[in-house]
């Protein structure tokens, strides 16, 4: 064997291979692991040009794989006044307004001020900001806040531009609510199809597709910088691969440019967005499926198309109806695309609908369907043994987002009355704890016991990564703990299962299990060095552990200060 370029030795290397082997050292050549074993075995391979790193007993795990990010959407909150106002850690209305006001003060009158996703836990005020709060700091600018992937809060200026007023009816197709006060005046909160309506009308004014509204005010270079900003956060959290969900062409072009410049240190499996909420007419859907996918410079193990993402039910609000979902899924499967669908967040009825559609798609060739590894995202409504067995028969991947659950369960619990009053969640349970559990508690242990492949995600920027607590999502997956408390104690899992959710299982869901997801010869040297033993530390310490170093293809790409 030619002497390796790099040896990492004197550590506890959790390989996450099939046998869950623990090793002491590994060797790397040209970014790929060539040997794993004992110190004696691996150190004997060193040559004059080999760099040897003493791990000093530290724990090493495969690079973490986040199976559900909105990568660049999170990054545009980190590029200053070239992107969106960062609100994800602002826990009160005063903090939210102060952050937006600073942007308003440097933005010419009449120009848009976009704010990123709000804090996903409970606001200290017990309510959300409204148009009148925003009007106090921005009477002469159109302003809107993203409350998540779909709902928004707009000020009076932005509502006027959208043509939304007291006499505007709630939209249908897709359904939505224009939240109103006791006197019938819109509060600025636009839910479900009402948010879609506003985006469509705003987009008509500035030009550009409604589904890319959140990017229309961000220049192409800022999008590249946004990608790199979130990449730095990912690497600080030990993340080396991401499945990017609902990615639009404008984002893909930024990724391609970053790769062209040699700047990518995260692998990206892209689930291309199907803008289902804006494709209600059949001619629009036919045109989309016939011409949407550009000849992007993608492929290989660094940046590739992993499938398509089709929205359906988020927080009880349907993005499209069942016949249109059926048409889109059958078309996608017929074209050989892997499909990812959020059947529900806590709404079991729509799980049955999605499974029935997928069963229809699989009828002609079940074996071929299973090979595509279609995915249920936001799968918390998948609870009944019968539905779990149906999902297993179809070979479906299951992708919860424990980091999101950690924060969002608190909102459902402590802001229950506000959510109920506004209609933010359709079909809300009358009991706050029941609502929090139903919405945000994944049945992880049941899924794993049934033999489903479960991978872990975050759903950033609806949640956020903190490099001081990089394994907070993994901790929530392990224990079912959240800011609201432990949701389902009987769904706690083992350390091995937790690690596999973010490594080997996630690699399998991405069809890259032969290249990433474990530390074995022939796989990329993507790995994270931790400050404590993730297999033996107390449960609570999993949430507090730190990533000391992250390696990408054997290159040290993050080192904790």
From TrEMBL:
<dbReference type="InterPro" id="IPR013108">
    <property type="entry name" value="Amidohydro_3"/>
</dbReference>
<dbReference type="Pfam" id="PF07969">
    <property type="entry name" value="Amidohydro_3"/>
</dbReference>
<feature type="domain" description="Amidohydrolase 3">
    <location>
        <begin position="51"/>
        <end position="558"/>
    </location>
</feature>
<dbReference type="InterPro" id="IPR011059">
    <property type="entry name" value="Metal-dep_hydrolase_composite"/>
</dbReference>
<protein>
    <submittedName>
        <fullName>Amidohydrolase</fullName>
    </submittedName>
</protein>
<dbReference type="InterPro" id="IPR032466">
    <property type="entry name" value="Metal_Hydrolase"/>
</dbReference>
């Amino acid at each position: 064997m030619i002497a390796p370029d790099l040896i990492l030795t004197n550590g506890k290397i959790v390989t996450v291979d099939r046998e869950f082997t623990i090793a002491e050292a590994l060797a790397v050549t040209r970014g790929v692991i060539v040997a794993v074993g004992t110190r004696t075995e691996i150190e004997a391979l060193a040559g004059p040009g080999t760099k040897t790193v003493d791990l000093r007993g530290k724990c090493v795990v495969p690079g973490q794989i986040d199976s559900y990010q909105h990568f660049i959407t999170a990054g545009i909150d980190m590029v200053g006044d070239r992107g969106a106002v960062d609100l994800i850690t602002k826990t009160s209305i005063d903090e939210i307004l102060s952050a937006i006001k600073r942007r308003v003060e440097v933005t010419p009158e009449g120009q848009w001020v976009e704010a990123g996703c709000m804090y996903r836990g409970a606001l200290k005020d017990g309510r959300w900001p409204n148009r009148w709060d925003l009007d106090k700091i921005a009477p002469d600018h159109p302003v809107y806040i993203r409350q998540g992937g779909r709902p928004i809060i707009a000020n009076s200026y932005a509502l006027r531009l959208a043509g939304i007023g007291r006499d505007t009816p709630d939209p249908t197709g897709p359904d939505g609510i224009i939240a109103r006060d006791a006197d019938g005046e819109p509060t600025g909160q636009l839910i479900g199809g009402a948010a879609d309506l506003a985006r469509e009308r705003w987009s008509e004014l500035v030009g550009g597709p409604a589904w890319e509204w959140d990017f229309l005010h961000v220049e192409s270079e800022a999008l590249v910088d946004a990608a790199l900003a979130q990449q730095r956060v990912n690497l600080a959290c030990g993340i080396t691969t991401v499945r990017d969900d609902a990615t639009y062409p404008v984002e893909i072009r930024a990724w391609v440019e970053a790769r062209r410049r040699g700047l990518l240190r995260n692998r990206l499996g892209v689930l291309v967005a199907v803008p289902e909420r804006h494709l209600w007419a059949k001619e629009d859907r036919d045109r989309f499926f016939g011409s949407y996918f550009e000849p992007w410079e993608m492929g290989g193990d660094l940046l590739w198309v992993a499938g398509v993402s089709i929205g359906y039910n988020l927080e009880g609000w349907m993005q499209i109806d069942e016949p249109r979902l059926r048409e889109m899924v059958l078309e996608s499967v017929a074209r050989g695309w892997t499909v990812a669908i959020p059947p529900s967040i806590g709404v079991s009825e729509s799980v049955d609908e999605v499974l029935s559609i997928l069963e229809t798609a699989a009828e002609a060739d079940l074996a071929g369907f299973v090979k595509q590894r279609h995915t249920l995202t936001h799968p918390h409504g998948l609870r009944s043994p019968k539905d779990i067995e149906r999902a297993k028969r179809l070979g479906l991947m299951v992708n919860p987002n424990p980091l999101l659950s950690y924060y969002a369960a608190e909102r459902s619990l402590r802001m229950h009355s506000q959510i109920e009053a506004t209609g933010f969640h359709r079909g809300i349970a009358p009991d706050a704890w029941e609502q929090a559990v139903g919405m945000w508690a994944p049945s992880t242990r049941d899924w794993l016991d049934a033999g489903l492949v479960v991978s872990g995600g975050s759903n950033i920027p609806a949640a956020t990564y903190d490099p001081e607590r990089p394994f907070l999502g993994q901790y929530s997956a392990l224990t079912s703990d959240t800011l609201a408390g432990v949701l389902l104690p009987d769904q706690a899992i083992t350390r091995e299962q937790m690690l596999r959710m973010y490594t080997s299982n996630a690699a399998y869901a991405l069809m890259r299990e032969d290249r990433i997801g474990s530390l074995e010869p022939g796989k990329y040297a993507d790995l994270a060095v931790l400050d404590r033993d993730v297999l033996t530390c107390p449960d609570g310490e999993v949430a507090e552990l730190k990533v000391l170093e992250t390696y990408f293809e054997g290159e040290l790409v993050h080192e904790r200060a």
